[in-house]
Amino acid sequence: MAAVDKLYTSTAVVTVKAGDKFNGITVAWITRVSWDPVMVAISIGKARYSHELLSKAEGFCVCVLGKEAESIAMRFGTLSGRDSDKFAGIPHTFTERGYPVPAGTIAYMECEKVGSCDAGDHTVFIGKVVGDKILKNEEPMIFGEGRILP
Question: How many domains does the chain have?
C-alpha cells in the first residue's frame, strides 16, 4: 500500500451520452473543485471507452452510489462499453437532461463539461454542476486503500 491509498473518496458511476450512445464508468477519483459556481473534477483513464465518449460529449452525470450498490460499482467498473451495453438488465432512470442514472444511486450531479487537462495516463474532466438531486439521504460507498470499504 502507498500513502496515496489513504485518500478515501466516494464511489460514483459517471454516465455520459455522446450522440445516441450511453455509457457509464465507476469512478473513485472525483472531487469538488469550486463552490461558485459548483464544479467537480473526474479522472478517467485514457485507454477507457468512457474517455473516448467524454472527449466528444458536452457533459456528464456523476451518480453517487450508496453502500448497498457494490454489484453496480463492479459492473460499471469491469465491463467495457465498447463490447456491451452496461445498462442492459440494470434498472435505471434518466435525469432531466437525459443522462442515465443506475439503480443504487443516492444522489446525482448533471455537469456541463467546461475543461479538461492531461494527468499522465488519465485526463481530468471538469464539470460545472447544472442540475442535481438527492435520491436517498444515506452515506455513500467509500473507496480507499485500493478497494471498496465496508
Answer: 1
| pLDDT tens digits, one per residue of 47-104 | 999 999 999 999 999 999 999 999 999 999 999 999 889 999 999 999 999 999 999 9
Identify the domain containing residue 82 by its residue range. 10-144
Whole-angstrom distance, CA of residue 4 vs CA of residue 116: 22
Query: Environment class of residue 37 by beta-carbon count within 10 Å: exposed (0-12), middle (13-18) or buried (19+)?
Result: exposed
The whole model's pTM is what? 0.95
Q: Give the largest CA-CA distance in the chain.
A: 41
Q: Is residue 104 assigned to a domain?
A: yes
CATH number of the CATH domain containing 95: 2.30.110.10
